[in-house]
Structures are given as structure tokens and as C-alpha cells.
Design brief:
There is one protein chain. The protein has 288 residues and is α/β, with parallel strands linked by helices. The protein has a single domain, classed as TIM Barrel. It is 39% helix and 12% strand. The protein has helices at 35-44, 55-58, 64-74, 88-104, 120-131, 166-188, 204-208, 210-214, 229-235, 263-280, and strands at residues 2-5, 21-24, 48-51, 78-80, 110-114, 136-141, 195-198, 222-227. Strands 1-8-7-6-5-4-3-2 form an eight-stranded parallel β-sheet. Strand 2, helix 1 (35-44) and strand 3 (48-51) form a beta-alpha-beta unit. It starts with a strand and ends in an 8-residue tail after the last helix.
């Protein structure tokens, strides 16, 4: 699995450079010094760079025409299509409009589409709909799946819903989503397109997916993940251990202009990157 290390612009050459896979935010190109230039250089060196739609940071996706233009100006490897949070039908309508525009403009960049929904059944239906679209190369799964519900009678009250830890609920509910997806793919005898995991609640989640690599036939492949977890928690002096985070995930959005001020913070971030790479069975481009 590839991992994208998300960190503030002043530390891109300290941390983001340790991976050759990146997820980048288009709303920062013009507002964050050095950000666009760093990733243009990484693109020129052959790194795989995915342009996000900035929905997590802004609450709504950037206009799809702007997303398309910025992606082609940057020359990224893949771009995330616009979406509507928790809304399958709204996301489908927006994606269809985006794909039509992309065809008209003769776009050549790979497209990642993120599945949305309010129940496990709705999410899985959306995933297989995306799987049927030839224009979509990768399927994204959101990290905030803790409020997904099963509408089938035997699981009206799923036990994960009663877990007090939001961090743990998010880990377990995305595990369950992927497990149900694996079962449905095997039932349909249909290989699912490569999956990108959007963000993390706790990186221990990634360790479980190593089991998928050994499964035969391999109906699902978790291609990649992006996260600011290593930086956010390292900056706060929180170290990942062999069981994941020792606390609840810090519920903050990353300040992309922030700077570390102590050697201890640098060591903590490096430690967390190494631990996340271990969970993901990912190779870093440099030794820490």
C-alpha cells in the first residue's frame, strides 16, 4: 500500500518527500507559499500525485471546472472528482456532470471517485456503480464512516454504534465496510477497482488490510491512503505504538502554515511516519 504524508508547507521537504505518493489540495496552490512549487517538482521527478477536491477542508468540493483546470495545469497523475458528503444521489449527479465535462474537454488525467452514502448497503451499491464506469480508475472511501447503518432487519442495531470512542468506531466501521464489500465482490465474481482510503482515524486500521493482499482470488486491492495523522499527533508529542494511537484522534484540521519548533517534535513525527508505514507495509523513499 502507498501512503501519502500530509503536512504543512514549511515541512514538505522534511516529511512529504519520504513518500513517492502524494494527495494534494488545490485550494492551497495560490494561498500557501511553496506548496504548488514543491509538488510540481515531485511531479517532474515522477511521483504519483493525486489532486483532491478539498471537500474535507472547505465543506464542499471546489467547482468541477476549476478542479479540472487546476489538475491539468499541475499535470497531476489523478484527480478526485467532486462529491457531496453522505449523499449518494447528490454525488452521482455531480460526478456525471463532471465526467461529461471531462469528456468534452478531452481530459487525459485518471479520475478517482469517492463513494458516499448513509448506510452500508447504499455505500456498497455506490461502489459497484462506480466500478461500472469506464472513466473512473480508482474508488475512494471516506474515513468518517461511524454513522453508517445497516437497513437489513438482522442488523438494525449494530454493536459498533455503542462504542464510546469515536476513533475506534471509525476504524471498525470502515473495516466492516471493506469486509462487506469483499463479500459482495466475491458473490458477484467482480473485481473492484483499486481503492484509496481518504484519511485515517487511527493508522492501526491499515494493518488489517495486509490480509487482503494474500487473499485469492483478490477481489479488492487497497492501493493507497493519505493522512496528516503522523504530523498532527507528532507535533503534539503523541507517539504511535504497536497498537496504534494511545489516545483519541486529535479532532483538528491541519494548519498548512504551521511549523515545528523542537527536535522532539521532529523525532515524534518521524517515529509516527515509520509506524504508519509499518502498519501499511509501505516502503518509504528514504530511511528515517
Amino acid at each position: 500500500m502507498k501512503i501519502g504524508i500530509i503536512c504543512p508547507s514549511p515541512h514538505l521537504t522534511d516529511f512529504a518527500i519520504l513518500s513517492n505518493f502524494h494527495l494534494i489540495l488545490p485550494h492551497l496552490y495560490s494561498s500557501c507559499d511553496g506548496y504548488a512549487g514543491f509538488y510540481r517538482e515531485r511531479i517532474a521527478k515522477g511521483d504519483f500525485v493525486v489532486q483532491d477536491n478539498s471537500i474535507f477542508e472547505l465543506g464542499v468540493s471546489l467547482d468541477f471546472r476549476k478542479l479540472w483546470t487546476l489538475a491539468h495545469q499541475m499535470g497531476v497523475s489523478e484527480m478526485v472528482a467532486p462529491e457531496v458528503l453522505k449523499n449518494s444521489n447528490g454525488t452521482k449527479a455531480l460526478l456525471e456532470e463532471f465526467l461529461k465535462y471531462n469528456q468534452q474537454q478531452q481530459g487525459e488525467i485518471q479520475i478517482q471517485a469517492v463513494a458516499q452514502g448513509s448506510t452500508y448497503e447504499e455505500m456498497i451499491e455506490h461502489i459497484f456503480w462506480l466500478n461500472s464506469l469506464k472513466e473512473v480508475s480508482t474508488i475512494g472511501l471516506p474515513f468518517d464512516t461511524e454513522d453508517l447503518r445497516r437497513i437489513t432487519s438482522e442488523m438494525q442495531e449494530y454493536p459498533y454504534n455503542r462504542i464510546r470512542s469515536l476513533t475506534l468506531r471509525r476504524v471498525l466501521t470502515r473495516w466492516l465496510l471493506i469486509e462487506l464489500l469483499q463479500q459482495e465482490a466475491a458473490l458477484r465474481q467482480e473485481t473492484v477497482k483499486p481503492i484509496h482510503l481518504m484519511g485515517l482515524s487511527d493508522a492501526i486500521e491499515l494493518q488489517k488490510y495486509q490480509e487482503l493482499r494474500a487473499s485469492q482470488p483478490r477481489w479488492i486491492t487497497i492501493r493507497s491512503n493519505d493522512s496528516s495523522s503522523a504530523f498532527v499527533h507528532g507535533a503534539a508529542g503523541i507517539l504511535y505504538n504497536s497498537k496504534g494511537l494511545p489516545c483519541e484522534k486529535i479532532p483538528v484540521k491541519l494548519d498548512f502554515t504551521s511549523k515545528l519548533f523542537s527536535e522532539a517534535q521532529y523525532r515524534a513525527v518521524h517515529h509516527n511516519i515509520n509506524q504508519i508505514a509499518y502498519f501499511a507495509n509501505a516502503e518509504l523513499t528514504a530511511q528515517l
